[in-house]
Amino acid sequence: MFARLREDIACILERDPAARSRWEVLTCYPGLHALVMHRLAHGLWRRGLRWPGRFVSHVARWLTGIEIHPGATIGRRVFIDHGMGVVIGEMAEVGDGCTIYQGVTLGGTSLVKGAKRHPTLEAGVIVGANAAVLGGFTVGAGARVGSGAVVTKPVPAGATAVGNPARIIQAELDQQRETAAARMGFSAYGLTQGDDPVAQALKGLIDNAGSQEAQIAMLWQAIEKLSARSRELPLSDCVPQEARTEAAFDAERLNRLVK
Q1: Do residues 209 and 180 touch, judged by C-beta distance below 8 A?
Q2: Alpha-carbon distance 164 to 169, whole Å?
Q3: Helix or strand or coil: residue 212?
Q4: Could you give the CA distance from residue 62 to residue 3 in angstroms, rounded to a whole number?
Q5: pLDDT (tens digit, 0 to 9) for every residue of the chain, 259 residues total?
Q6: Bond into 165 cis (ω within 30)
Q7: Which helix (H) or strand (E) holds 80?
Q8: What pTM did the predictor assign?
Q9: Please, which of 100, 136, 174, 234 could form a disulfide with 116 given CB 3.0 to 4.6 Å?
Q10: Spatial CA neighbour of 199 closest among 181, 183, 182, 184
Q11: What are phi and psi of 97, to 5 degrees?
């Protein structure tokens, strides 16, 4: 028990620059108090002592402003920062190293008893202030949920969910698109992540240009290999037949992007 407590204090000192000492964390951090009391409530709940578990949870809510159902599973090194208004449902699972800010709800949308109604947060997930994660799905390891987001579908590992309803932002894909746009002298940062048709058309054009650039690079590699193999043949004979077809401009595809 004391080893877990020391671990919890250490993770708070590591993640919160406002924390100045172990004594301050131990005495003044309601997120820590809520987790310690939850372990007691969860132990009672698992032993079939449902009412005592709920009562300890109720007292913890009254003292800290944080409501954690005794049936919820909380991992190690979880940090509930500030914490006022946090609600964690019965079947929620919070993985190791997660960070949860004030006003967060890990809730459910189903009324079916026995079903997995509440979300699972894998290791290292960060949930911003006043976000709601609703449903029995999984938020992948290292994902981030932006402040005020309402998430009702799974979030891939390492992705970011923002907005209401939440949309998934794949950081790697956005970075690839921005890199391709920069080579064309265009900044993609001004593009919205929503359903604006002009933004979607520009994204499609950038992705298409990046794909063509990759295909051209592969074609030149093939030409160089063939040329090195037979220096005496004309260059036209070294180019694969399928690479010498005429380019076709698909106007209809571009029109569909902006409709």
Answers
A1: yes
A2: 13
A3: helix
A4: 26
A5: 778 899 999 999 999 889 999 999 999 999 999 999 999 999 999 999 999 999 999 999 999 999 999 999 999 999 999 989 999 999 999 999 999 999 999 998 877 777 789 999 999 999 999 999 999 999 999 999 999 999 999 999 988 898 888 888 765 665 565 565 555 544 444 444 555 555 556 566 666 666 677 778 788 877 777 777 666 555 555 555 554 444 454 555 655 555 5
A6: yes
A7: strand 79-80
A8: 0.66
A9: 136
A10: 181
A11: 75, 15
Two tokens, residue 53? 């578990």
Question: Which residues 6+ apart lie within 8 Å of 21 measured at CB?
Answer: none
> What torsion, rounded to 10 degrees, do the Cα atoms 17, 19, 22, 28 define?
-150
- The count of residues in the chain is 259
Position 200: which residue type?
Q
